[in-house]
Amino acid sequence: MNTKTMEGLVGARTNMELVNTPMRVYKEARRRGDTATMDRAMGYVSDLEDKAQDYKVKADEGMKADAEEAREEAKAEREKAIERRREEREELNQKLDEKAEADRNAQAGTDTVEISEEGKCLLKHNKETQQSDSEVPDTDIGKNPMTYSKTGGAVPADQSTGNVVSVSV
Questions:
Q1: Could you give the dihedral angle defined by the CA atoms of residues 63, 67, 69 and 72, in that order, rounded to the nearest 10 degrees?
Q2: Radius of gyration of the chain (CA)
Q3: Is the CB of residue 8 less than 8 Å from the CB of residue 61?
């Protein structure tokens, strides 16, 4: 609560309570017929009511300031909430993009297989035995590497891969 509001409310209340004393004096003077005392008492009543009215104006100004402050706080709170939601949305979009990228990689359907040194030796040994074996026709294993597409068609493999085999699942 604003200090102007507090001061205005307390001042107005105090002055309205103080009005009771000159009003009591006015009523007693009226019963006695003392007009001079009645006039003086009404002057005090009028002064105290004017002060109470001034304090009321001060309290109204303080309440307007409180309302403006509350509006500013609410606006700042809304802006913070909007910023938080924007950050959450960006994080969600980033996660979705990462998931979509992972899905695309999974859908690409290619896995990379590297042949170990033992496998290379075994392949070399198999080639030698096939060449020396007259019953088995000569094949082109390892001579023309091929990659297969999702539809099952053969696609010539990139020759720069070396000893890397791509397998489509």
A1: -170
A2: 48
A3: yes
Distance between CA atoms of 160 and 50, rounded to whole angstroms?
99
- Spatial distance between the Cα atoms of 62 and 11, rounded to a whole number of angstroms: 13
Q: Which residue in this structure is represented by tokens 């001042």?
A: 11
The string of pLDDT tens digits covering residues 58-105 is 999 999 999 999 999 999 999 999 999 999 999 999 999 988 887 777
CA distance readout (Å), 12 to 24, 62, 76, 137: 19, 13, 33, 114
| d(C-alpha 120, C-alpha 129), whole Å | 14
Between CA 23 and CA 40 the distance in angstroms is 11
